[in-house]
C-alpha cells in the first residue's frame, strides 16, 4: 500500500510539474508572438505609383495609385484614407520649406485631402496577405515637372494611430 501511495504521489508531482512547464512554455510563446513580434497588430506596407496615361486638351491625364499589403496576421480596419498631390512646374521658384516639412523642397498643393475610397463606404479594411490597389485619375498642367504624392490612413478604432507614405515622381512623357 505504501508503494502505491508513493507511486501516486510521484505521479501527481510529475503531473503538476508538467502542467507548470506547459503553462510557462505557453506564456513564453504568447509573450514572444504578441508582445515581441507584435502579432496583434497589422503590418501594412504602402507603395505609391504615378503613371502618365497621355495628353489631352493641354493637360496630362495621370493615374495616382497606392498599393497596400498587410503583411501581418490580423485584419486592419481603416478610415480617413486620403492623399495630397503637390506639384512643381517649370515656372515654379525653387525654395526650401520650413521646419514643419523638415526643410525639404517646397511644392504647391494641387489636390488636398482627397479620399482613396468613396465616402459612402465609411471605411475599408486590409486582410492579411491580400494586396489591394486604389487609384485616382486626374489631370495636370503640361508645365508640371515633378509631383509629390502623399498618403495616409488612420486605424478605425484609434484615431491617433496612422500609417503614411510619400514619394516624388518626375513627370516625363
Account of the protein in words:
- There is one protein chain.
- The protein is α+β, with helices and mostly antiparallel strands and 173 residues long.
- The chain has two domains: 1-40; 44-170, Immunoglobulins (Immunoglobulin-like, Sandwich), CATH 2.60.40.
- It is 20% helix and 47% strand.
- The chain has one helix and eight strands.
- It has one helix at residues 2-36, and strands at residues 44-56, 59-70, 76-89, 108-115, 124-126, 132-141, 144-155, 162-170.
- Strand 7 and strand 8 form a beta hairpin.
- The chain is elongated, with a radius of gyration of 27 Å.
Question: Could you outline the blueprint of secondary structure elements for this entry?
Answer:
Elements: H1 2-36, E1 44-56, E2 59-70, E3 76-89, E4 108-115, E5 124-126, E6 132-141, E7 144-155, E8 162-170
Antiparallel strand pairs: 1-2, 2-6, 3-4, 3-5, 3-7, 7-8
